[in-house]
Amino acid sequence: MGALKKAVLLILVVGLAGCAKRVPLPVEKVEAGSRIWVRTTDGRAVAGDVLQRQPDRFILKTKDGRVDTLLVADVGIIKARPQEYDEAGRLIPEAQIDSVKTNRNLVLYTIGGGALSFGTSFYLGNFLKRHVSSGQDAVMWGTTGLGTAVGIAAFMNAGAKRDRLMAVEKIKDYRKKLAEQKLRQEESRKEQLKKELERLKKEKAEKEKELQRLKKALEQKSEPATP
Q1: Does residue 224 belong to any structural domain of this protein?
Q2: In the predicted model, what is the mean pLDDT of residues 160-177?
Q3: Is 14 in the same domain as 30?
Q4: Which of 14, 92, 171, 177 has the fewest CB atoms within 10 Å, i.e. is most exposed?
Q5: Is residue 85 a part of any domain in this protein?
């Protein structure tokens, strides 16, 4: 039972640590939409999504919904998940990734990887059991439990990364299609303006022609009659 508890704890620690990997983030890279974890110069821990970035401060929305202000001068260390950007170089906020991301691959990888890890670890444990003189059962089940825990943690991490990657790609595709749609609308608008300009030019030319005709007719009427 103790080995089982340790295995479960190992799965949670390793798996969740892998799923939530954070890296140092320079202050100048923080922008609206960044999700940051900050250690202040006086030792406080502050975390949240950046709602607004000002030169001297961040406006954060914390996990419990509070809005907090953090001065740049009070920042000691900033960490964040590796930030994702679209093809136009715009940040993809973590909140948007969360709203799109599913746990489909996390579940599939965990179930499939758990079964594979258990089978492999059980085979290895059984092999080791035959080559020790005492504590055979402890060796077999300890190897099985540890191997299964490590395997599940690795597959959980891989599944979570896959889910995140798919969410990011989905957002990129959506933004790309939206940009293409706006481009087509802009091109259509330009084409309409071009046609309208041509129409106005043609209309102006016709008016100029009519004006010249009327001017010429007026001049002919103004000429004195020949005796």
Answers
A1: no
A2: 95
A3: no
A4: 177
A5: no
